[in-house]
Amino acid sequence: MVPEMEPESFELSSERVVAPAAIALKWAAAATVVLLVAWLSFTRAGWVPFLSGVDLGVHEFGHMIFMWAPALWTSFAGSLVQIAAPAALAGYFRWRRDRLAVVLMVAWVGMSLNNVSVYIHDATRMQLALFGDDGSGAGHDWRNILGDLGWLEHTDTITGLVRFGSVVAFLGALGLAAWFAREDLGPTRSQGGPLAEWDHLPRRPQ
Fold first, then answer.
1. Is 46 in contact with 118 (CB distance < 8 Å)?
2. What is the pLDDT of residue 196?
3. What is the pTM of this model?
């Protein structure tokens, strides 16, 4: 009697043995995107074309949903939601087992952190052209936050910590891409083909 094959097992096995070059290319492309976003973010003062525009929209949405809260919380909510949104999406895609999306979302967290670090750094410089600000600095979230907390003198230290978090996130995205590539290209039971897991069973005489 020939053992029946589970359809799902067959699909998984076939998927793991076909086109290793395509799998390698996929994860190499993901790593390239991560590096490109990191390079743009760190060489353009935290501003990445298009993506930072999305970040700005998320940032302003954060202010809107916390309009009911005290002024300090409302100021902080923009940056918090800007970072939390891609982090939450990374968790969602991890649950969906979409590993490529996880890598890209973690890179987005890195980009958002660096953008916020630039904003924090400006709290004592007041050089950024801010959305909706009249130039007085009254709408500068981080000047208000650090001023209310009495932490303006620690601006550079806080900037460095947030920027370090950005570097960690970008490195984490690269590490995940490498790990997932290793998983996809590493040895599995299916190395000998989709029927390899039945090779140990007795063969019927020809």
1. yes
2. 42
3. 0.80
